[in-house]
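Budget justification aside, the reviewers requested a transparent look at the raw inputs and outputs of the sequence design task funded under Objective 1. We therefore reproduce one unedited record. The lines immediately below are the structure tokens for a 266-residue chain.
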């Protein structure tokens, strides 16, 4: 489960790069019950925060990178963004955004893994990360789709010290590697690596990509809101044994995410 103590290597923040900020705010407000709090425009940048029940759950900004697709960026907590940057480079990754200080809030950097999967890190200052997780309307899991799961495990294990445990998917769907932060027990698992053929990664032109999984109280009802508000469904809703009911969705600008109603505990 994802928690808000944000140990090194755990997911702590996420933000969406969208071509139309007001449209994205309206969509996620309708689907997940989020309220958008604009930070205004500065130096051509437009963005703000999403809140659920008053607590920050994600960020939103206008997509400015030429040729980039609209997508969620997942951030992982680190003790030192500069040291992590050197580790990423030694492991064969690429620095997309060099470590950058964001006032007193913290320090961030963004990277690509050796196959092109994009991710980011956050060195906390006064801001540790999001304020609500693992509850309906908030981040509950992170997931990487990649054409080379073994290479991904080697790279991310080297960068973050993650522990991996493989589980066989039902119906001969291959292996799924579950991620747990270094030194923590299985109940602190926070994500997974899913291997698949490159032709199934068309959303990112064959490159790997990370996406968030949002918990919802009723997956089918949430999916109905996705389609009613201009989004689409790539897969589901369907039941995953031991996991819950889930659907893989796209927002109106094509950013991917998963909705999950987890199985009841006990």
């Amino acid at each position: 489960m994802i928690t808000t103590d944000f140990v090194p290597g755990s997911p702590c923040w996420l933000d969406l790069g969208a071509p139309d900020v007001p449209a994205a705010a309206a969509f996620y407000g309708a689907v997940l019950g989020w309220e958008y709090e604009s930070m205004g425009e500065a130096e051509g940048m437009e963005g703000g925060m999403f809140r659920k029940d008053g607590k920050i759950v994600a960020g939103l900004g206008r997509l400015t990178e030429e040729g980039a697709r609209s997508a969620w960026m997942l951030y992982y907590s680190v003790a030192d963004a500069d040291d992590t940057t050197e580790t990423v480079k030694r492991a064969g990754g690429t620095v997309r955004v060099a470590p950058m200080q964001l006032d007193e809030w913290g320090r961030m950097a963004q990277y690509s893994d050796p196959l092109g999967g994009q991710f980011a890190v956050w060195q906390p200052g006064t801001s540790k990360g999001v304020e609500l997780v693992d509850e309906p309307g908030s981040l509950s899991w992170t997931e990487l789709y990649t054409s080379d799961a073994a290479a991904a495990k080697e790279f991310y294990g080297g960068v973050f010290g993650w522990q991996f445990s493989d589980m066989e998917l039902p119906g001969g769907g291959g292996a799924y590697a579950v991620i747990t932060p270094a030194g923590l027990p299985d109940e602190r698992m926070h994500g997974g690596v899913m291997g698949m053929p490159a032709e199934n990664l068309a959303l990112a032109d064959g490159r790997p990509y990370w996406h968030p999984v949002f918990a919802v109280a009723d997956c089918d009802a949430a999916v109905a809101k996705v389609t009613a508000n201009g989004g689409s469904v790539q897969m589901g809703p369907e039941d995953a044994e031991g996991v819950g009911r889930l659907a893989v969705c796209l927002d109106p600008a094509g950013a991917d995410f998963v909705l999950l109603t987890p199985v009841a505990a006990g």
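Residues 21-32 form the longest helix (12 residues). The mean pLDDT is 92. Computational costs for records of this kind are itemized in the attached budget.
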